[in-house]
Amino acid sequence: MEKGKIIVLSAPSGTGKSSIIKRLMDYPELRLGFSVSATSRAPRGTERNGVEYYFISHEEFMSSVEAGAFVEWEEVYSGTCYGTLKSEVERVTDAGLNLIMDIDVKGGLNVKKTFGDRAITIFILPPSKEELERRLRGRGTDTEEVIRKRLDKADFELSHAPEFDERVVNDDLEKAVEEIRGIILREDKNMKPAEQVVG
Length: 199
Ligand code: ADP
Ligand code: 5GP
What we know:
Elements: E1 6-10, H1 17-24, E2 32-34, E3 37-39, E4 53-55, H2 58-66, E5 70-77, E6 80-85, H3 86-93, E7 98-102, H4 105-115, E8 119-125, H5 129-139, H6 144-158, E9 166-169, H7 173-189
Parallel strand pairs: 1-7, 1-8, 2-7, 3-4, 8-9
Antiparallel strand pairs: 3-6, 5-6
Helix pairs in contact: 1-7, 5-6
Bound molecules: adenosine-5'-diphosphate and guanosine-5'-monophosphate.
Residues 13, 37, 41, 72, 74, 76, 82-84, 102-104, 107 line the site of guanosine-5'-monophosphate (5GP).
């Protein structure tokens, strides 16, 4: 059985990646499996260990780095690390599913370097900086300091949008989901027939 595609979604925090991924997971024909990353940050709101992330301590994170457990990892915000586990990539793509990951800009570009044509990188853009700030505040899960750190990083992240394979604006959520669904279906079809999984 051929391995599935790797779909990378990156965007400034608060743009709507998690909301989009949740909606995409409702379409069985996309055959998606979510890559659960490891992070050293604490759970937010209703997040559960092993669902949104594997929540581990900074020490555990660094031991996993030394053990070579990650395909890629980044200190996305000062003192807070996130990484894609090799075991997640294998679990999902070995089953012939398309792996969908929500990772930062640097991580996304590194995944493209590692996996080449097997990976499709999609950058999600907020309609404006003002709307991005409104969404971050509206989420109601972060402290003012965390919100500021995330907004400060947004310009740097947006400057990398041209390096991605595709760009989608998340103004209307349903439209953004439809656009990304179309990209995934097109990529899936482009796989050679022998690569398609039956059933
Ligand atoms: P990210 O995963 O990129 O950090 P989230 O999915 O958590 O972003 O979305 C941030 C906030 O913005 C959430 O409160 C979410 O409900 C809201 N949101 C997402 N997409 C839209 C949209 N198209 N229009 C308005 N609000 C949105
Ligand atoms: P959040 O704390 O809002 O869930 O995520 C913060 C940032 O970390 C987002 O940009 C998200 O895409 C990124 N991120 C989540 N998991 C990973 C990962 O495994 N690797 C990298 N490089 N970034 C990640």
